[in-house]
Amino acid sequence: MKVSDRVMPPWYIDRRIGIRKFKEDPSLSDEQIATIVKWVVDSGAPLGNPADLPKPRRFGDLNAWRIGQPDLIVTMPEAWVVKPAAPDDWPTFTLDPKLTEDRYIKAVEVKPAPNSHVVVHHSRPP
């Protein structure tokens, strides 16, 4: 089991070499691992009482501006198409804002095309 083998949750530290104690170590304790193994292996991972579940998270409009209505929108000259079943792609785009004078930037929001959240998991402004 990946939890008892300490593969999950991922921590990427080999405790057999180098530093073995870390501040704010997110690793599961032996007791936590035993609880998970008992729940999964011994009990078949029962769901528990549905009444104890937290309320589902509510998301706003995925296509709305989160920084308010911008005074300048720079768009890509053509859409970037993600190929089906392609490995992770990390494209970098440079866009010309076509400004004729210097301007100060107060906020930037990178906004993928509507409904592209199924393939775009994050983006980073400059």
Describe the protein in words.
The protein is elongated, with a radius of gyration of 23 Å. With 126 residues, the protein is mostly loops. The protein has 1 helix and no strands. The protein folds into 2 domains: 1-52, no CATH class; 59-126, no CATH class. The model has no long low-confidence stretch (mean pLDDT 85). The chain has one helix at 30-42.
The secondary structure category is little secondary structure
The helix content, as a percent range, equals 10-25%
Shape: elongated
Mean pLDDT: 85
Q: Low-confidence parts, pLDDT < 50 over ≥5 residues?
A: none
Strand count: 0
Overall tally of domains: 2
Rounded to an integer in angstroms, the radius of gyration calculated over CA atoms is 23 Å
Largest sheet, if any? none
> Which strand-content bin applies to the residues?
under 5%
Number of helices: 1
Instruction: Kindly report how far apart the N and C termini lie.
Output: 41 Å
- What's the order of the H and E elements? H
